[in-house]
Amino acid sequence: MSALLRYQAALLLRSQRWLAPFLLYVAYVGVGIRPGEPVLGALGYAVTGLVPVAAWAVRICLNQEPPAARAVTAAAAGRARAHLAAILTGTAAVLFTGAGTALGVTAVSDRHGVTAPAAGAEGLLAAAVCVLTGAAVGALTTRPLIPSRGWSLATLLLGSLLALVTAGSPVRTAVTALVTDARAPAVTLPWPALGAALVLATGAVALACRATAWRT
Fold this sequence. Notes:
This protein is an all-alpha fold and 216 residues long. It contains 10 helices and no strands. It starts with a helix and ends in a 5-residue tail after the last helix.
């Protein structure tokens, strides 16, 4: 698996397809957050953008190989393992981005009423919730489940929006906790939301990898 992950990461870096989602996320954070804002509210804004970015990154990794190269990789390592490596590569890239963003926002924001470690911990957990949920959306909205590019993009956008606004979704739960804590101020670590996001991501990835057995 480590060789597959290195291979997928090298493909992602060389393809430069990652530039669009990550630069858009940088712009999203740069426009929406100013130094000195209340830290928890700023974190709530920053992590929401990770949902579509994670979905987009996973979609990129699942489609970056030419069909011939994909067939060779699948023959050498197995379709499911190759598919899983692509999903993990996209997810890991956004996890690192989200962690860096959460720590950076914590460092430049107003932490009145909360400590930096507590705010940073809540921000990191909320970022993980958003990335895992976004990865689930990305895994379910591209090949092999939705091979059409047009429908794939449409369902990715819709899935990301639903993850953000649907009552009871892990993302909305974690972000709502940040916004609520910002008014107190207080810190509530979103462990239940993280657990739900992990279950959701695991189920989505398992379904997508299983589907590679009957659809390419």
